[in-house]
Write a structure and sequence with these properties.
By secondary structure, the protein is an alpha+beta fold. The protein has one domain (11-132). It is 23% helix and 19% strand. It has helices spanning 11-17, 109-132; strands at residues 32-33, 55-57, 62-64, 77-81, 85-90, 95-100. Strand 2 (55-57) and strand 3 (62-64) form a beta hairpin. The longest helix is centred in the last third of the chain and has 24 residues, at 109-132. It is globular and about 45 Å long.
């Protein structure tokens, strides 16, 4: 560690926050998340991120269990905020991304298009760099 810096977290802490170990392994359906219907129409649309892909909740993140159409690896972590703020962490590819908008309702179509386009661009760049290497 550099002089004047202090550690605020350990690698094990990050691994634990991405884990679902604290829930009973005998009830995997408890972890799964599906479509979430809006209860407040002016604030959020219905939410179904990555339809057809099993997603589950970890201690701190939404975890996708298969590769997404944008290129996110299985086991990647994500979160989203009400005003269309999104981030993801892909430990397998050592990449993360953040896009912040201040728009309601949540899961606005234009915001989702911007987010998925951004994510596709990140993975297209990674793939191009890997092919060139």
């Amino acid at each position: 560690m550099k002089s004047g810096c202090s550690r605020i977290s350990r690698r094990a802490t990050a691994s634990t926050s991405a884990s679902d170990y604290y829930l009973p392994s005998s009830s995997p359906a408890f972890l799964a998340t599906t479509r979430i219907a809006s209860a407040v129409a002016f604030a959020t649309n219905d939410v179904d991120l990555f339809p057809g892909i099993v997603k589950k909740w970890g201690l701190s993140f939404l975890i996708n269990t298969a590769k997404t159409p944008e290129g996110r690896s299985p086991g990647s972590l994500a979160w989203a905020g009400l005003a269309n703020t999104y981030f993801w962490i892909d430990p397998s590819r050592d990449v993360s991304g953040v896009i912040l908008m201040q728009v309601l309702p949540f899961v606005d179509n234009k915001c989702i298009e911007a987010f998925t386009g951004f994510e596709r661009g990140v993975y297209a760049g990674l793939d191009a760099a890997q092919k060139a290497a």
